[in-house]
Amino acid sequence: MKIRRLLLCILLLLTAVFGPNYLVPLAQRDFFAEQYRRDPPKFSGTIVLYHIVTQRTYSGSVTDWLQAQADAYEKKHRGVHILVEGMTEPYFLQRLEYDRLPDGYSFFSGALSEDRLQPIGLTTDGLRSGLFDTAFAVPYLYSGYALLTAGQPKIPIPQTEPIAQLTSEARTEDCVAVALRTLGDRLRDEQYGAAYVTKPIGTFTDAVCWLGIAHDTPEEKAEALRGFYAYLREEKQQQKLFALNAFSVLDSVRDSVAQPLETIAQVYRSVCTPDPFLWEEQHTALLADATEAMNGSEEARRRFAERLAGILGN
Question: How many CB atoms are located within 10 Å of the residue 100 CB?
Fold first, then answer.
């Protein structure tokens, strides 16, 4: 019993001597602040993202959609501000002349060369058949083409898209290949909209929209962009593409599109699409060959077929 009392006295003495060194700092700590403390962001500042408008989706604005996703992303990533600027290709080229470069790009196939980008370091599983990530850019949405016919005489028909026309089986004058935005504009026409007939054109499309990081973007900004790009390709964000009537790049996402696009969307579950940078190198020559072929040149048709097969790896 005496030993226990002796040990207790020693313990009390040690507590009195050494306890304040531990207990005082502990009492001064803000427990609740520590519980809810967030680590400081790796990057804090503004990131500029250019969206180059060379194609458009069936409806809506990709620029506005991107900005809405950026605003949602910012709420979860304190200190990161993403400014999305949409522009036509001529306006983009004008900015390049004045050396007004962004941190990142959103662009459709053929609008940007590989040398303007740095390795992106992103891949994802579950892309739809025919889609792929590249070392410098990754896809996040796509649109396409359809065949349009006038169901009644004297109904105005838009000009055909020569490249899309030659990749389809349509050869008649009254059936033209049109981009899905053109299709949407025609079907929404109050005077003639109900008179048009449309059907799928096939699985070919160059209207794939990609994400890239500018060549000279510093690593902190580049890493922040990678985070945003990965966010855009998550299922939750991909499901929001219904606002554009655009197609998701993920096989796990069921497209929610306007009724006229439902059959077309089913065909486009699998795509045939070129490498975006090979397309940039060859698009001018392809378009020239396709235009000549549509005007009756069999030699141009042959060149077009050979060039396209080379790009697609056929």
Answer: 12
